[in-house]
Design brief:
heterotrimer; A: alpha/beta; Rossmann fold; 2 domains; nine-stranded mixed β-sheet; two-stranded antiparallel sheet; 8 helices; 15 strands; about 30% helix; B: alpha/beta; seven-stranded parallel β-sheet; 9 helices; globular; binds flavin-adenine dinucleotide; binds adenosine monophosphate
Chain lengths: ~280, ~350, ~450
């Protein structure tokens, strides 16, 4: 039987992030959290293939209890089992410590019920690091295909998968041994619209909760802040481009405004020579 | 002792990615920033490139011209195309052998794929997508560390990250964030061939097909001039007008996501959080409101000209110059004026 | 996984707004299984208003309200009218005294936060909330409503009684034939508003509020609505100000003015602009208010279904009362559903007890009393402009005519009224207005 696992993260909806205009601090309060968009597409792809191959999808996430909402969303999309990995000791983990915990959990799930494909999102939109997927793959010593846009074939009998990935300049079709790890772009699959019974089922679903107490054990030295090689030294708000002069064509006329603009543009270093005109 | 500042030289089909040269420039600056420490200890700082692939002597030589003190080269037919595992193993081996203090990798699709894996296998920290790098002491008197600064939360916040106890201190760096260093006419330093072969057990995946993108592949991320359009264009045809201006200016056309979503133009043109990050000399935003997700992709441009009917559009907050008006009047006037300008100068 | 069991509940509530979560909570508290269906991502995510919530109605559902720590912004400790002329303003607000009741009668709130919490309370009573789902129609058996159809695949869900709390856009109420008409343009106001964020200290300083425990609710009349019959408002949150203006749809369409132009004009008013200067726009939106009240109220029940809140036109526009009516009606509907289950009778006749319950509350008496208001304003389109402008002139002259014979001053003041409206007509306006709001 085909068994896929998707590692998801609940993230603040960065489109709704607000900065306190006075203190320049992030206002976390009231910022809605969402299932990381790339992860949602990864879940959709896993479910699509479980339906094709008559298999099973397990979802895991490491995060606070509130992440249960995101796990339920995955169940709504058609996943079968969801595990919340939640413990104070995990807090403050960077990508290194995160990939440690996820790896331990994935190995435990694999032992119970062998995995074929392990899905990640391309990146989480809060940190945008895109590191956790490759990190887990290295720890598991499994092939990893990043920036996946299409799964061409999953062959559980001969134990290989054919995945198309997108690089900056081209697409590559990669054949890898199973089990394999992949990180997904949004093109990987469309988000399905759940039926009402599936939605109702998911709303009632209670995910398993794994902690440092069990069912598996973790090396405390590798957890959370303590287990993270990187630390945040300071945070601030980005310096903004200073707003320059604004002309209204209604007042100056179009041509004058444009002329003024060109005068300024040609002053920018290198622009005049680039355009082949002299200032 | 040598304090090594490494740059992963990214190449595909024997062609280097420009970000590699940008990073050699950065690495040189970082090495200069610890001069005071070197004077005290008598150590030397080395800027070194690492290059993996097959038949890329040309690239190795170029690296020297961009200021590398040494370039380590691993040349193996099995490394002709990038694959995560063999490349990770080779780099892990080299890192363990030479123990660099800092390692910079371009935040490209390839670089991010590789850096995440290498950091994990070496067992060190990695700061992704940095936009600012410096060597500094976290506290007076402490040895200098790599201060890697990066945007987070969709560009709303910037964070400076340290990796105190593990080496190398790794960072991926967005292309176009740092300037190109000037190319030295003469390259005096060395190419060091590392004798590592890629054994079959290092290979767990293969490329079965390469699909080169059809049509003109737009390179908004490397253009010096971008004429970008937003929903204010009203329709797909508006981009033809922008293309005319872009052609006159020797640039390319960019777009907000609203236009890509409306299928007025392909995704390759999208600038912003979920599109390309750009840093042109000139960015013209026509009919773009300036949502934060768009701004994070273009606010590093040297000069931003915003054209919008709405004087309150947030794009004006970051525009070097703004024109409040109808883009369908302003853009044609721009096309006329640049043509006139060129013509007038030709006559002389 | 897809279990094809028939989804059945004792009660279905459509819409997790103020009315819906109240109705659902009451029904669940009395032992019924309740499904509340909401189209938004979460309850509240699609809702917003001016505005203020009224303590009495919240306590009506949760007597232990304060222990539950509702996410309210500031208590309203100052309230009243601001009358705008073209470039001036007269403030008639009240503070202290009756405004200092304990607890305070009204609290400014942000709906996205409040509605989520309000629904969460219903959930604690046992309500099963189904979000991201739109009810599109009813399941009927022998002309009786026995459930609803949603927009999802296999989207049927059954209950012998459905409480419709769908808000002003009452498509479902119309589908049942309870409301015969679409929104009436003269009886519906389009309200446009912005939520502007500012530091709490700035708000306190600009509006003269001693602390974050003090808040202002102002109804703004006169030069707010580009000469159209309308009403503006300004409410202070903890670190945000909610400003907007409502105008009847009919007037707006006739004048061909775009909603955001209307709002921008108001925000640019020389008296209003400095109050919000430097603030950051957080939210912009437009929403309809069913101002018709009594005159546009649908029939409130049919076989197997009840209607509450804005969907049933329960709004008193002059007093900004809508939330409390919605909550009271939700409560009455919930109680009626409980009673119907006890009797095992879901017929229109049995459910008419809902109307009887409501008749005993301020909801019906007030709506009846104000029934002629929208007609009054329609027939006197200048009413909302003339008098605020006059008031500004009158007080302005009174407080600036130094060194002038006072007899002339009073003559001038009277002139500034009669220039606008002959004395007899003005007196007539006042009497008519009095009669209208007294409900004669
Ligand atoms: C997770 C996420 C990621 C996103 N990523 C991106 C991204 O990568 N890139 C991106 O661009 N967006 C992104 N967005 C979308 C972003 O939030 C905005 O919706 C989008 O940028 C708006 O595009 P726009 O400015 O073209 O359109 P609008 O906001 O509709 O602005 C159109 C502007 O045109 C002006 N206008 C109209 N007619 C004229 C005229 N004739 N002349 C002059 N001006 C005119 C109007 O005044 C208006 O300001 C993302 C959103 C989310 C939620
Ligand atoms: C600008 C403005 C200012 C106001 N100020 C005040 C004030 O200060 N004080 C006051 O008391 N009142 C005020 N009101 C009025 C008040 O907001 C409303 O009367 C009140 O919200 C009505 O509550 P409701 O539950 O009937 O409807 P709503 O709060 O509108 O709730 C309806 C719910 O149903 C959901 N829904 C609708 N259709 C469907 C469907 N088919 N399927 C599933 N879900 C559906 C909606 O998403 C929504 O959550 C104001 C209104 C406006 C617009
Ligand atoms: N805390 C977490 N729990 C589970 N999966 C995660 C977590 N953090 C990151 N991931 C996964 O790793 C991907 C890349 O995340 P990142 O490296 O943070 O950009 C995400 O899309 C998720 O699939």
């Amino acid at each position: 039987m085909f068994h896929a696992l998707v590692s998801i993260k609940q993230v603040p909806d960065t489109t709704n992030i607000r900065i306190d205009p006075e203190t320049n601090n992030l206002i976390r309060q009231g910022v809605p959290t969402i299932l990381n968009p790339y992860d949602a597409h990864a879940v959709a792809a896993a479910v699509e293939w479980k339906r094709k191959l008559n298999g099973k999808v397990t979802i895991i996430t490491m995060g606070p209890p509130a992440a249960i909402t995101s796990l339920r969303e995955c169940i709504e999309m058609g996943a079968d089992r969801a595990i919340l990995i939640s413990d104070r000791a995990f807090a403050g983990a960077d990508t290194w410590a995160t990939s440690y915990v996820l790896t331990e959990v994935i190995q435990a799930v694999h032992k119970e019920d062998p995995l074929d494909l392990i899905f990640f999102g391309k990146q989480a939109i809060d940190g945008d690091t895109a590191q956790v997927g490759p990190g887990v793959a290295v720890r598991l010593d499994l092939p990893v295909v990043t920036y996946a846009v299409k799964i061409h074939e999953v062959n559980t009998a001969e134990k290989f998968v054919v995945i198309e990935r997108k690089t900056e300049s081209r697409n590559e079709v990669i054949k890898a041994k199973l089990p394999a790890v992949m990180t997904c772009e949004k093109e990987i699959a469309d988000i399905p619209y759940a039926s009402l019974p599936d939605l109702v089922y998911s709303l009632r679903y209670e995910p398993e909760v794994w902690t440092t107490e069990g069912p598996i054990t973790f090396d405390p030295a590798q957890l959370g802040l303590k287990g993270s090689p990187t630390t945040v030294f300071r945070t601030g708000t980005p310096e903004k481009h200073k707003a320059g002069e604004v002309l209204k064509t209604a007042e100056t006329g179009v041509d004058v405004a444009v002329k003024t603009a060109f005068d300024k543009i040609l002053e920018v270093e290198g622009v005049a020579s680039m355009l082949g005109v002299q200032r | 002792m040598n304090r090594r500042f490494w740059v992963y030289i990214e190449q595909e089909d024997g062609k280097a990615h420009q970000v590699s040269w940008e990073l050699l420039g950065v690495a040189r600056r970082l090495a200069d920033e610890i001069k005071d420490e070197l004077e005290k200890t008598g150590d030397t700082a080395l800027v070194e490139g690492v290059l993996v692939g097959h038949q890329m002597d040309e690239v190795a030589r170029e690296a020297l011209h961009f200021g590398a003190d040494n370039v380590y080269v691993v040349d193996d037919p099995a490394a002709k195309h990038y694959l995560n595992k063999p490349y990770t193993e080779v780099l892990t081996h080299l890192v363990k052998k030479h123990q660099p203090e800092v390692m910079l990798v371009g935040a490209t699709t390839l670089g991010r794929d590789l850096a995440g894996a290498v950091a994990t296998s070496v067992g060190t920290g990695l700061t992704a997508d940095t936009t600012h790098l410096a060597m500094g002491s976290p506290k007076e008197g402490q040895p200098k560390l790599l201060m890697a600064t990066r945007p987070a939360f969709g560009g709303n916040v910037i964070a400076t990250i340290l990796c105190r106890n593990h080496r190398p201190q790794m960072a991926t760096v967005r292309p176009r964030v740092f300037p190109m260093p000037s190319r030295l006419a003469e390259a005096k330093s060395n190419i060091i061939h590392e004798d590592i072969t890629i054994t079959p057990d290092m290979v767990n995946a293969e490329i079965v097909e390469i699909i080169t993108k059809k049509g003109s592949d737009v390179k908004v991320d490397y253009a010096d001039v971008i004429v970008a359009g937003g929903r204010g264009l009203g329709n797909a045809k508006g981009f033809e007008l922008l293309q005319q201006l872009a052609t006159e200016l020797g640039g390319v056309v960019g777009a907000s996501r609203a236009c890509v979503d409306a299928h007025w133009i392909s995704y390759d043109h999208q600038v912003g959080q979920t599109g390309k990050t750009v840093r042109p000399k000139l960015y013209i935003a026509a009919g773009i409101s300036g949502a934060i997700q768009h701004k994070v992709g273009m606010q590093e441009s040297d000069f931003i000209l915003a054209i919008n009917r709405d004087p309150n559009a947030p794009i004006f907050e970051i525009a070097s110059m703004g024109i409040v008006g109808d883009l369908y009047e302003v853009i044609p006037s721009m096309i006329n004026q640049i043509r006139a300008l060129k013509e007038a100068q030709h006559v002389h | 996984m897809s279990t094809k069991e028939k989804l059945t509940f004792d009660v279905i509530v459509v819409g997790a707004g103020l009315a819906g979560s109240a109705a659902a909570a009451i029904a669940a508290r009395n032992g019924l299984s309740v499904a509340m269906i909401e189209r938004g991502q979460t309850p509240g995510s699609k809702n917003y208003f001016g505005g203020a919530l009224y303590t009495h109605s919240l306590l009506e559902i949760y007597p232990d309200l304060w222990d539950r720590k509702p996410p309210l912004e500031r208590p309203v400790t100052e309230s009243g009218f601001w009358f705008l002329s073209k470039d001036g303003m007269v403030r008639a607000t009240v503070q202290g005294g009756k405004m200092q009741n304990d607890p305070i009668d009204a609290y400014v709130a942000l709906r996205a936060k409040f509605d989520a919490w309000w629904a969460e309370q219903a959930k604690k009573e046992g309500v099963f909330i189904i979000p991201k789902t739109v009810v599109v129609d009813f399941i009927r058996e022998d002309e009786k409503v026995v459930g609803v159809i949603t927009d999802r695949p296999d989207g049927e869900i059954y209950a012998p009684v459905v409480i419709i709390c769908e808000g002003v856009n009452n498509l479902l109420t119309q589908k049942l034939g309870l409301a015969k008409h679409d929104l009436k343009a003269h009886a519906s106001a389009l309200a446009v508003k912005q939520l502007i964020s500012m530091p709490a200290e700035t708000i306190n300083a600009r509006f003269g509020l001693p602390s974050n425990e003090h808040g202002l609710a102002a109804s703004v009349m006169g030069d707010v609505s580009m000469g159209l019959p309308g009403l503006g408002f300004l409410y202070t949150g903890v670190d945000s100000v909610s400003v907007g203006v409502g105008v009847t749809l009919e007037a707006l369409t006739k004048a061909g003015i775009k909603p955001y132009e209307l709002l921008q004009r108001y925000l640019n008013h020389p008296m209003i602009a400095p109050m919000i200067a430097g603030g950051r726009l957080m939210e912009y939106g437009a929403h309809i208010i069913p101002e018709g009240g009594w005159t546009t109220m649908p029939k409130l029940y049919t076989d197997g279904a009840l209607v509450a809140g804005d969907a049933a036109s329960m709004v008193n526009a002059l007093h900004w009362e809508g939330t409390n009516m919605a909550i009271m009606a939700g409560k009455a509907a919930g109680e009626t559903a409980v009673e119907a289950h006890q009797k095992r009778d879901f017929s229109a006749k049995s459910l008419s007890a809902y109307r009887a319950r409501l008749d005993k509350t301020f909801v019906m008496t007030d709506l009846h009393q104000y029934r002629n208001l929208s007609h009054f304003l329609k027939s006197r389109p200048d009413f909302m402009n003339t008098y605020p402008a006059f008031l500004n002139d009158a007080l302005g002259m009174f407080f600036s005519g130094f060194g002038k014979p006072k007899k002339q001053l009073y003559k001038d003041i009277l002139r500034s009224l009669t220039d606008r409206r002959p004395l007899v007509k003005a007196a007539g306006d006042m009497i008519a207005f009095g009669r209208t709001i007294m409900g004669f």
